[in-house]
TrEMBL record:
This is Thioredoxin reductase. Signal peptide: none annotated. The keyword Nucleotidyltransferase does not apply. It comes from the Bacteria. It comes from Glutamicibacter mysorens. Residues 5-284 form the FAD/NAD(P)-binding domain. Transmembrane segments: none annotated. Gene3D superfamilies: FAD/NAD(P)-binding domain. It catalyses: [thioredoxin]-dithiol + NADP(+) = [thioredoxin]-disulfide + NADPH + H(+). Keywords: Flavoprotein, Oxidoreductase.
Amino acid sequence: MEHYEAIVIGGGSAGLAAAIALGRSRRTVLVIDEGKPRNAAAQHAHNILGNEGINPLDFLSRGRQEAMNYGVQIIEGAVDQLGGSMETGFSVTMSGQAFSADRIVLATGLVDDLPPIPGLARAWGDTAVHCAYCHGWEVRDQEILVLGIGPMSTHQAMMFSQLSPSITFINHTPAALNDENRATLAALEIPVIEQAVQAIDFDAQGNLDSVTLADGRKVNAQALVVAGQMNAQASLYLSLGGQLAENPLGTFIQVNEMGATALPGVYAAGNASNLGAMVMAAAASGTVAGAAINADLLGSRLAKAPAPAKP
Ligand SMILES: Cc1cc2nc3c(=O)[nH]c(=O)nc-3n(C[C@H](O)[C@H](O)[C@H](O)COP(=O)(O)OP(=O)(O)OC[C@H]3O[C@@H](n4cnc5c(N)ncnc54)[C@H](O)[C@@H]3O)c2cc1C
C-alpha cells in the first residue's frame, strides 16, 4: 500500500491549495479528485483576484499543474472509504486501490440541493444563479425573479436589489417567508407573488424566457435567483465518527481556525467546512490547512525524537 504524509480528498480550489502548501514543504502528497467542482456549470468565475472571469475548469487545471510542479501526485476518482486514525494511520480506498496517510484533508465541497422545478437544472449556473458576488454584475439591471424556497431567499432578494431595480419575489415555498421577511421585502419595495413555480421556460434560442406559475400564468424573467440547501459532502467524515454542524445555510464540518476538525489528524477546507466560502476563501482555507498539517507533522517528529542527553 502506497503511503503519503498527507492525502487530500477533493481537488477543487481548497484541496489544490492545501496540496500546494504541503508540496512546497516537501511533504509527500496525494490528491484524489472526482472532478466535479461545484461551479462547473458556470462559464466564468468572478471575484478571483488576478484571474477575474476565468473559466472555472481552466482555473483548476492551472492549479493542478502548479501542484504537480511541487511533486504532488493527483489521481482521478472518488474515494469510497476512509478509515483508521492518527495513531494507527489513515487508510483511503478508491475503486479497490488502497493508500495510507498520516494526515487527511477533506476538501470535498458541498452539494446544492435545488428544488425539483423542471428546467431549473438546465438554467443553473447560467441564468439561474445563487450568489450576488459570483453572478450579480452579469445580471445587473435585468428582470430578476427570486424563488422563495428557504430562509436565505429574502437575503438573496436584498442582495440582488443592489444590482437591479427589477426584482420580484415568488413565494414558491410559503414557509420561506415570515413576518420579518415580508417587512424586509416591503421596505425594499420588492413585490411578492404568492404562487409556486411549476416550470421554467426557454425561448427558441434556448434563453431563459419566463416561469410558469401554478395557476398557469407566466412571468417574464431574464434571471432567476435561487438558493438550495447546501450540505457538505461529508460522508467520509461521518464514517470516521465525525459529527456535522448546522447553520441556516445547511450542514458542514466544523473546524478551528487552522482547519483542524474534532478528529485528530483530519483537516477540512473549502465548502466542506465553510458553506459560504467562494473560490478565493476556499483556496485560502486550503493553504491554511496545508500549513497546519506541515506544522502538525513537524510536532509529531519532535515528539518522537530522543530526549537530548543531560550534560
Ligand atoms: C454555479 C456556481 C457558480 C459559482 N461562481 C463562483 C464565482 O464566480 N466566484 C467564486 O468565487 N465562487 C463561485 N462559486 C462558488 C465556488 O464554486 C466554491 O467557492 C468553490 O467551488 C469551493 O471550492 P472547494 O474546493 O471547497 O469545492 P469544489 O470546487 O466543489 O471541489 C470539491 C472537489 O471534491 C471532489 N470530491 C467530492 N467528494 C469526493 C470524493 N469522495 N472523492 C474524491 N473527490 C471528491 C469533487 O468532485 C470536486 O472536484 C460558484 C458556485 C456555483 C454553484
